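Final report, closing paragraph on structural work. Over the funding period we assembled a curated collection of sequence-structure pairs, and we close with a single example.
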Amino acid sequence: MVKGTPGNSGTILASYLHIPVGRDKRIAIFTGAYNHVVDGVSLTLNRLVSYLECENTPVHIFAPTVQHPALVHAGTLTSVPSVSLPGRPEYQVSVGMSPRVIDELDRFKPTIIHIATPDLLGLQALAYARIRKIPVVASYHTHFSSYLSFYHMERLESLAWAYLRWFYKKCEHIYVPSRSMAKVLSDHGIEEGVELWPRGVDIAMFHPDKRSIEWRRSLGFEDDEIVISFISRLVVEKGLVIYADVVQALRDSGKKVRVLVVGTGPAENMLRDRFPRAVFLGHLTGNELATAYASSDIFLFPSATETFGNVTLEAMASGVPAVCANATGSSSLVVHDETGYLAEPGDVESFIRYALNLVDDKEKRRQMGIASRREAESYSWRLILGRINGFYDKILVRPFVV
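Its predicted structure, as stored:
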């Protein structure tokens, strides 16, 4: 059962009251991604750490890192031993705690251990907490089992879910980003302690006012061309092949559509080969990223592997209608036929049909863009991050039993 569920259409209607804390609040966070790669996990956790520090809550992060990190991280970070992921060298995989890491953890004296990745590092953090009688919480950021089919490892799915059931049973809370993701966990026997922790969006940064016709023209887009954006990591599991097939079908039918890609990754060359005239901007942040969202006309995101869909929410805040997979994550954000469309996962024809509706109807794009912005405004970062603080406080006021 999911607790703290928002109202209809993902609207967050209630905040958590402050609860007097019975023990000092000192949070140790263990994660597989924090500063060595820019993705939804690392950005969300960095924002959480910044919030906790502003609330004067001591926090210490334990994660893999690299010599030249992809982002400037928030808070105090202790690097853990790691190796590059075979075939995906941009990712580091932790190989557990070293004595140095354990010494750092002992000196910090955490009162809650927050595990963001149930990998070897997370497993050792769980063991550490059990020995020292420290409560453990977990946040579910990556829908690991949904990735297995992309690597022809479907036979491992039942084993993966067995491990996750065992792992999360040891946790006081499991924070999930969407009701649809909570339903997936429930279907696999993970129900106890599940709490809803949606992601937020900077509604001042991502705003329809960032749309710029001059910016579009500077990139070679004609005023009457429909710019269909893909903004995410460029990996096949994000639905890039479907994105390419949809755009190609629209072009083959004579529609004036253009490709805008923001992000980097190993599948970039595949897209470049298919669309030589596409605009590739690489990794963007801040106002540049906000301008790219708002200056596109349709956000097409076929990924069926999301636990939430940060990029979908950013597009919505920017007033851009989205066509997404009716799967975990996006299905909790997009209101079908109101703020965008939800297509059947993997069904190219379904995506083409909905994208075509928007390409052909400028007024529909405008109306859905307004509705999308209104929906996104309910996802205030401060409110959402405050939920986690409230969850921590609820744990600390009661006795902990191993």
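Residues 4-21 have pLDDT under 50 and may be disordered. The two ends are 22 Å apart (CA to CA). We thank the funder for supporting this effort.
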